[in-house]
Structures are given as C-alpha cells and as structure tokens.
Prior knowledge:
seven-stranded mixed sheet, 218 residues, globular, Nucleotidyltransferase, domain 5, single chain
Amino acid sequence: MSDSRLTPVAFDIETSGFDADAVITVAGFAHGLGESLILNTGGHSEVDRNTLVTALDEESTGTVQLDVVANEGELLELVASFVTNQLDGDTHYVTAFNGETWNGGFDLPFCRTRFLQHGLRWPFGDIAYADMIQVVDRFNTQDHTDLVGVYDILVGEETCDPFDDSAEAVDAFQTGDWLPLCKHNLADIQRTRKLAELAGQFVAQSDFKMKNLQPPRR
C-alpha cells in the first residue's frame, strides 16, 4: 500500500501526563504549507494568540495556523476537522514517530482512547499511515532510536525545541508556559516530516509498511 505520489503529513501530540486522567494539550500537523497546531489551555489562563503565532511563524517552514481552545473536547473536534477537510487519501499519508507500530506506539492509541471517551467518531478515514520509527532503521543511526537522536544523526539541523526532555512539556502545560510548549510540538512535527522526506528519497517503498487507518466498520 505504498505510493510514491503520496506526501507526508506529520502528526504529534503532547499530553498532560500518562495517567488515566491525562489529556491532550497540543496536537500538531506538519504539511506542505507549514504547520497546523491546536493548543488546549485547559482553561488555565488567557492566551495572546497573535503573539504566539508571530513567534511560531519565525520557526515555521511556511506559516503556522494556531487554534487555541479551552478543553480537550474542542481540541479533538478541531483535529477531526483538519483530518476531514485538509487530508486527502489520494495525496497524503500520515506519519508519526512511534505514533503507532504493530506492537505499540503512543500518539494514535492515546488519541483513540480520548476520542472514545469524548463520544466522538474516529476521524482518520481512508488514509495511509507509516511510522517513521519503523523506517529509519534502514539508515545507520548509530543505535539511536528516539526522534531527537535519529534526527540529529540523519539531519543535524537546529530546531526550535526549547526542551531537553519531553517531560518538560507536562510542566509547561501545568504552568501555562504556552510558547515553549507549542515550540516543542512544532519541532517534533518538523523533525518527523523531515525524516519522512529523507526516507522517501532513500528507502524502498515496501519498507514503509503502510497501512490504512480507516476502521472496517464506519
């Protein structure tokens, strides 16, 4: 199910933790025109959206579209809207780094649970998915298996990530430090998309192990 005509749209989420009551704090997509981010403030504080967009645009590959919402339900609805209106199964494939693999992954399983608990329909329809963690092993990454380590080996360009550890994103949400939180997500989706672009130039199509995200009963 691999098609060289498909272009990657990278997806990544940040969460408030890993407990049962954890929520998605940021969801981001990196695509050909730039990036689309959705920030969930949890109703913690007021946000100067224009100031955030100005700062994020300086780090964008194109332009940043930023939506700011007060709760996770609104975030999920905007994720669904983006997937429905902006993704084209004939043009795009979704990718993430350890977003979902045959034996695990984080982003998509976490999202499924959150969509289920909010009573929302799973939005990813007839679109292909390939996980970069399963593709980059076709490169010599010197035993690095994490996104930052792999990116630094294969690309090595500076990013806008202000954090040394993803756990800092949890603290940023709790303290309402919105710009670093958004920059972290922005950096991760940019890293993932860049790796997907490199893989598209060097790795055999069959090694992408693409699958369709559409459930059998919709």
